[in-house]
Amino acid sequence: MASALRDWLETPDTGRGVHLAADDGGWEFRDYGELASAARRTAGALIEEGVRPGDVVCLILPTDFTCIETYYGVWAAGATVCLITPPLFQDGDDYVAHVAAILRQAAPALVVASKDLTEYAGRAMDEAGMSGEPWQPRQGEEAPVQPAGELALLQFTSGSSGAPRGVMVTWDNLEANCDLIARMAGYEDGDVVASWLPLYHDMGLIGTFITPIARQGMLRLMRPDHFIRDPARWLRCFAEAQHTAAPPFAYAYCARRVKPEQLEGLDLSGWKMALIGAEPIDPHALEVFAQLVEPYGFSRTMFKPAYGMAETTLLVTMDNAPRDPLAVRPDPDTLSFGQPVRILEQHTLGARSLGAKAGWIVGCGTPEDDVSVEIVDDDGNRLAEGLLGEIVVGGASACPGYYAGAEAKSTRFMDGKVYTGDAGFFHEGQLFVLGRMGDSIKVRGRSVYVEDLESKIAEVSGLGKGRIAVVGVPGAGQKGLALFAETQAEDWIPAVREMLRRRVGEDVELTIVVGTGLIQRTSSGKPRRRYMWERLQADRLDGARIVP
Prior knowledge:
By secondary structure, the protein is α/β, with parallel strands linked by helices. The protein has helices spanning about 30-50, 65-75, 90-105, 120-125, 170-185, 200-215, 225-230, 230-235, 250-255, 285-295, 450-460, 495-505, 530-535; strands at about 15-20, 25-30, 55-60, 80-85, 110-115, 150-155, 165-170, 190-195, 220, 245, 275, 305-310, 315-320, 325-330, 345-350, 360, 375, 390-395, 410-415, 415-425, 430-435, 440-445, 445-450, 470-475, 480-485, 510-515, 545.
């Protein structure tokens, strides 16, 4: 199957390319001619190794030029790419088990790993029952671009609500979504994209890597650790760059870490799009960032709140209208499926967003005509604007399903549509997303979402949001919540117990767990809620202490 996403490999623009951040603070540059030639040589070596069109090839590589060349080398060989996160902060055994679970489902023809990751990759292959050794990237004779199979990607979900599952992303899915991203972002030929997002996550891979490279745009690419060490380096990119994407915490992190003097002389007025996605959007986080960079030409209209997921390739909606983002605070007592959502307060992003307490959410834009987005009730009936229900997505970006027959409890694929497992509603034409249906409990006929509880607990306890994770715990004949808090202190617990009693009632059993290093996260920073509970139950959550 031909694809415009690979065309540049045969007709590269040698005047443009990728700037890759170096550890010394500088940048390394390779033009598309160099990258295309290296990718075709890598394809030659892969073909020599036995890789054929339609095969799955798993990559465990850090973000560097070898990763870029190998990624496109797999595509040039006609194979399907499956990127696997390198180990971050996971325990080695846990990481190997995670990779082995992916390998068992993906059944790759080849596992590619960098030299320093071959030990982990080899252990995972053994655990998955695969023979052979990991293949270290190398180049051979330059090969012509091969015909491709149906699947461009196996995009494994990050596992925030269960075991990893490989989403089948077809070439048609990927082309449609890249076109949607470019259209909604207002991308123009010659625009520059800057990103620090990891390539093994869909927002970084598709939104800020595949999309600009397919158009042979200039790309400034950092690793996540570069951003964490020096977030001002990312911001300085926008003296030249027009587009980026990041989760909300990144904007708040910049506001905390970057000093105005680090931005002296910077002109950000050419910045077109700062997409926000991957987790619930906190208006306070956006406002503190806006106040930091506004003196240098940044406008709140550059914020583009978005909604998407791997099962829809990536993007579903983005607020691409030239306006300040809209934040609303729904009445929690009206959050019942099929019922109207009462809005207690609303305002556009601005000074009133500072210090916004729990319960505020930001609109994620209006669907494009070629992307169907519906809100449905428990029986699948379409609901009108203002009513709460499940978000269902159709259109050319809706993926056909999970690989090898895998299934999820919340997300389902039916009749060419993705039943997302996310709860949301439309208000003033915009989509508002409350969170995973699986990450909620029903209390007196209404849904209580753990993200909302986490915000309220952080407020009452004085602990930061990043130190709190709540898990909905199923029980026999009763409902339960488990609260994980990264602290050894207990003086905050009585106030939180009382708040939760008022919020969810006395019939919900509460388990409070304290300690250090408790909160396990996915590659995109989401708490692995069910995984944490299962490890606690198995007495395998190190440092955990249950408070009576």
